[in-house]
Amino acid sequence: MPFETLFSKGKGWFNAALFRKNITRFWPILALYTAIQFLSLPTELILLSGMREWTNLRQDVGNAIMGATSTSVPMGGIFGLLVAMALFSYLMNNRSAGMLHALPIRREGLFLTNWLTGFAFFIVPNAVVALISLAAQGVCGALFPLLTFRWFALHTVIAMFFFCFAVCCAMFTGHILALPAFYGILNLLVFGLSMLADNAMNVLLVGYGGNRLASSAVTKWCTPAWHLMNQVNHSSFYDGTPWFDPSATAIALGYCVVLGAAFTLIAVVTYQHRQLERAGDIVTVGWVRPVFQYGVGVCVGLTLGTILYENFFRSFGPWALVVGVALCAVLGGFIARMLLKKTLRVFANGWKGCAALGVCMLVLLGGARADLFGYQRWVPKASQVESVYVGAVSSAPWDSGSSGLNLEDPEEIQAILRLHTTLVEHLNELEDARQRDTYGWDEENFETASATWLRIEYYMTDGSVQTRTYYDVPITSQALSQPDTYAAQLQALINQPQLVMRSYLGQNVDPEDVVASSAWLTNVSEPDDAQPSGQDLDLTTRQCQTLWAAVVEDLEAGRFHRYLLEDRERNENCYYTDLHFSLTQPYYDVNGVRSTSNWDLRITVQKSATATIKALEEMGLTDRLSGRNDAPTGANTEFVG
Amino acid sequence: MIEVQAVSKNFDGFLALDDLSMTVPTGAIYGLVGPNGAGKSTILRHITGVYQQDSGLVLVDGQTVYENPAVKEKVVDIPDELYYFVSASTRDMAQFYKGFYPRFDQKRYEALKDVFRTVDEKQPIRRLSKGMQKQAPFWLALCCRPEILVLDEPVDGLDPVMRRQVWSLLMSDVAQEGTTVLVSSHNLRELEDVCDHVGILSHGKVLVERSLSDLQENLVKMQVVFQTKELPQLPEDMEVLNVSQVGRIHTLIVRGTAEEITNRLATYSPILMDALPLTLEEIFIYELGGEDYAVRDVIL
């Protein structure tokens, strides 16, 4: 039986007349897509073929293909939406919906025909462009069939994914302008909500810290554009050969195929139950209407509430955010109801639901603020912790020793747990420090009060990671002098010799294995002047090795110190001059191949580092050290050393 | 035959169809009349398979219509609000419909060019005049050779000559092909000329449904001059739908046959008595009078 007869009677799953009509109606979109694709790849390749005499053609052709591949996400995102809007626009209008659904074809038939039209809109131009590109590569003499196939597969599959997503959105709305809005919002919804929730929790909870939800793997997976961009851009040109990560490409394709199929399935089922009389409504599916209303309420509440808090009500403290978000959620609920009901008169019938939403937000955020779940007070037991990373501590001097610390030793873990416990016992102080400046200087301009960040990552024995970040831990000279304070505990922790050593050299680096190949001093002074000249002084290899041995000796002896305040002791002990080493460490990679890692170390010369000072004395270089205590008052506050 | 059995449809709390039942016999021209908002277009959209009822059954030749392409092949509708693809001409739409309706008759399409000669088949329908835009769907619908033609306010906007031409074509199809025509219109005088069955809808229900002749026989307009100027006390079991008086002439709209009512009023020895048939418009008005839709002070 001929194709036309088999499928066109309206009893099947495909109607050729509708397919043809779709093509003839929406050809401008097809033409635009084809033109852009043609310009982005074959045209580029044809232009390159004319430059073969003065370019590295093979590399340029590879780069052109990979560059064109990286546009697959924005192209798919835009054209997936446009094609879906065009093909399913008939659902947004009573007349067109009535006309097409009176035809002798099932809804599944209409859906599949339109879906296949969308598929044709992407696969046909991409296939043609890929073939022309291969021909152009042949002319260039640089043929990349695999890269070209990757271009074709990613462009087609990603566009189809976004098309399926947009079609799914179309099934839930009856308003053509709501479709791109829903599509855009839903694409970024998880990321946006995570950001808003993170922001609110940062305000409400001491120790929450950062974009924990927004940067989570779940958020990335639920934000298609972000996730796909990461996967698609796993390519480069290495040593004259194009390279891409096949697993990243496979993940991108698999993600699109699986989720695209899921969206299509949801769309079909929704279409089967769609009430056509809802054409023109913002939301067409009954159970989605309250979800939309209260979802918009929550989003408006968090967004507007946060904006108002950050710009106008910050001085009122975190409870202002709680109240603001709740009130804005109520407002958002009413706005959503107006959109749903297509009238401004929604207060009489809608106030109960909106008020309930406001109360829910109040309870939820108020509960978080009151720490009903014990988040702020939580400190793990030592037995639950496998290791701890301590980072983001602002400690002078400002050299290579400012990096984070990995703690695995039980005693070190106990020390951080004690510190954390002390912090938790003084949450009010931490809260106050967030609201007001904690900085202070004495009459000689030495720092007496400051604040530091502190990030504690607990790697638990159950495999989970728990993080607490304290943005403004107040540090005062008075607190530093009392051993039980968190400031003193933190100061003591970061000054443990083995930790100072690790903060400079890194985790699991044995100084015995490290070879210093060169060294130089920066910011030295002239011999007859204690002021820093801003000049460098190169050292000989012998001097380098002598100094490296002295530095290692001082590090092992705990003679290099870290300071939480720019106080008198820090200023008197530290020079402006820094000692730099180029270090090399041999290691064996996972395949057992010997290799080396190289890095530069910068360490501020300290008077307490007696072995280093002695070595410099023996080299006659102590008069080139620019010292803070030699500098006139006023220069002390400059963070040079 | 179209059978609608106890169909209900609710739009956001508004009961558009309330347990509606009606039957359209095969080969009939069935006029569906009713006040605005009675549910005429809604029930037609159920019969064409566009809407799904909340409850009840919509059957064509014993089969459900909704999502049944085999049945929908037999049904062609011309809705009150026409839709055509942007820039599609009558010829384009004919090609389109040909892909859906297996009985689409290209020869008839060519033959009807002469009837609809004012319609430029190559011109986009949206650029045609309003009247021509109304002609195009008749041209296309007739070419689909439907067994059932559903028309919602079909001839509004057509000139009298074209109206007659269109009805002539439809009645010819009914006579020759046995086509069933279900038509909704407010133009009752026109329906009266073409319909053989009438259903009156109000508040989502069918109030009356019968053949036009039965309907006309069941109501009578009596013009009577009694002995006294005032209207005498009429029998309680006489169902008088409306009474009006001009001078000494009383006009009574009474349920019953002309013969029966004439005999009963004769007992009052009226000076003058005449039984007149009601027009469909009068039937519509008086039947709906009891449905909170009365026309007061109507001069007949």
Report on this structure:
The complex is a heterodimer of chains A (641) and B (300). Chain A folds into four domains: 13-278; 289-369, no CATH class; 385-502, no CATH class; 510-624. In chain A, strands 3, 4, 5, 6 and 7 form a five-stranded antiparallel β-sheet that branches. With 641 residues, chain A is of the alpha+beta class. In chain A, α10 packs across α14, α14 (288-313) packs antiparallel against α15 and α22 runs antiparallel to α24. Residues 1-10 and 629-641 of chain A have low confidence and may be disordered. Helix content of chain A is 56%, strand content 14%. Chain A contains 24 helices and eleven strands. Chain A has helices at 3-8, 16-25, 27-40, 42-49, 57-69, 72-87, 94-101, 107-140, 145-172, 178-204, 217-221, 224-232, 246-272, 288-313, 318-341, 347-369, 410-425, 427-435, 477-480, 486-494, 497-505, 541-557, 568-573, 610-618, and strands at residues 235-238, 241-244, 385-391, 405-407, 440-441, 447-460, 465-476, 515-525, 532-538, 574-588, 594-606. Chain B is α/β, with parallel strands linked by helices. Chain B has two domains: 2-210, Rossmann fold (3-Layer(aba) Sandwich), CATH 3.40.50; 218-293, Alpha-Beta Plaits (2-Layer Sandwich). Chain B is 32% helix and 29% strand. Chain B has helices at residues 40-47, 69-72, 90-98, 106-112, 130-143, 160-177, 188-194, 212-217, 258-266, 280-293; strands at 2-11, 14-24, 29-33, 55-60, 63-64, 75-78, 148-152, 180-184, 197-202, 205-211, 219-225, 240-246, 249-255, 272-276. Chain B has a six-stranded mixed β-sheet, sandwiched between helices. In chain B, strands 2-1-4-5 form a four-stranded antiparallel β-sheet, with helices on one face. Chain B has a four-stranded antiparallel β-sheet with strand order 12-13-11-14, sandwiched between helices. In chain B, a hairpin with a 2-residue loop joins β4 and β5. Chain B is elongated. Chains A and B meet through α2 and α7 of A and α2 and α3 of B.
